[in-house]
Amino acid sequence: MLLTRGISTIPLHCHTIVSHHHHRITVSLHCYAVVSLPCHTTVSLLCCTAVSLYCHSVVSLHCHAVVSLHCYTTVSLHCHIAVCTLLHRCVSTLSHHCISTMSHCCLYTVMPLYLYIVTMLYLYTVTLLCLYTVTLLFLHCHVTVSLHCHTALCI
Questions:
Q1: Do 6 and 37 share a domain, yes or no?
Q2: Per-residue pLDDT tens for 104-142?
Q3: What angle do CA 73, 74, 80 make, to 5 degrees?
Q4: So where does this one cross the membrane (predicted)?
Q5: Is 154 domain-assigned?
Q6: 28, part of any domain
Q7: Alpha-carbon torsion angle 106, 109, 111, 117, nearest 10
Q8: Is residue 23 within 8 Å of 32, Cβ to Cβ?
């Protein structure tokens, strides 16, 4: 079993290879582990333990480079405020937002929450200058989920 970060264990698959070359017998133990990540990437860890049999036993551990893929997910929330005003009569303060009388005017902006509150208070104050004014505020939000991956090369 291979211990990873002291949290969980990963089963190792091992097989033994015996080779003979010029009166030298080498017993190699090949072990590998298959790790499944949430981003559906398989990382193979291949380590081989070579046991060389001479007059004295020499045990050496040879490991290949291990490329691990670390993934984390960030969820960002983007909000767009659509300020739609239905005006019957309007003073010059809002004239640049209105095309004509009885027009439906929408102003799309991207702003933080505190600006949203300030804008809402400002619009409610300004609409007092307009007669028969209905101001509608819509908060449109969409969630962007992005997956950031970086590779760590360990030798």
A1: yes
A2: 333 444 455 666 666 666 666 555 544 444 444 444 444
A3: 145
A4: 113-139
A5: no
A6: yes
A7: -20
A8: no
Most confidently predicted of 14-23, 45-54, 123-132: 14-23
Q: Both 135 and 87 in a single domain?
A: yes
The per-residue pLDDT for 18 is 78
Tell whether the model's pLDDT for residue 16 goes beyond 70: yes
Specify the number of domains making up the chain: 2
Same domain, 80 and 53: no
Binned at pLDDT 50, 70 and 90, residue 13 comes out as low
Residue 127: left (phi > 0), alpha (psi -120 to 50), or beta?
A: alpha
Query: What are the angstrom distances between the C-alpha of 94 and each of 26, 132, 150?
Result: 88, 14, 50
Q: How many residues does the chain have?
A: 155
110 is a domain residue: yes
Are 82 and 51 part of one and the same domain? no
Domain that holds residue 127: 75-145
* Token pair in block for residue 29: 């133990």
62's tokens: 């040879």
Answer yes or no: is 69 within a domain. no
25/137: higher pLDDT = 25
Phi, psi for residue 39 in degrees, rounded to 5: -90, 20
